[in-house]
Design a protein that fits this description.
This protein has helices at 44-54, 56-59, 73-95, 98-111, and strands spanning 5-12, 15-23, 28-30, 33-34, 62-69. The protein is an alpha+beta fold.
Amino acid sequence: MSVEAVQTYGRKKTATAVAFCKKGNGLIKINGSPLELVQPEVLKLKVYEPILILGQDKFAGVDIRVRVKGGGNTSQIYAIRQAIAKAIVAYYQKYVDEASKRDIKTILTNYDRSLLVADPRRCEPKKFGGRGARARFQKSYR
């Protein structure tokens, strides 16, 4: 017997979060620790957003385990929330039904598109003749 599970990922800058969503009883863990212990404290609400928007009942029948690496604190938080949102959509599409998946997707997209669609912006590489990507060294005639 195969287990009902889906694997999705979320990305922000260089941070990548992989969410493994399977049938369960509402457990959500990030790198093995519960969702309540997410650091920094200020951005904890950002991780809870998909759960608060859709309601606890949608997450009651699934367990989500998230592995995250790369990037900084903020990027990791955004990658985690995207991975969780994409995981619940993928799970509902594969194992529940298309109508409820469409509802979930609409709710999430109306709230914040970055919950389902990755932000393509990346850091621009530094060039010669200056100290950054665009900044140039000051020009002197004497």
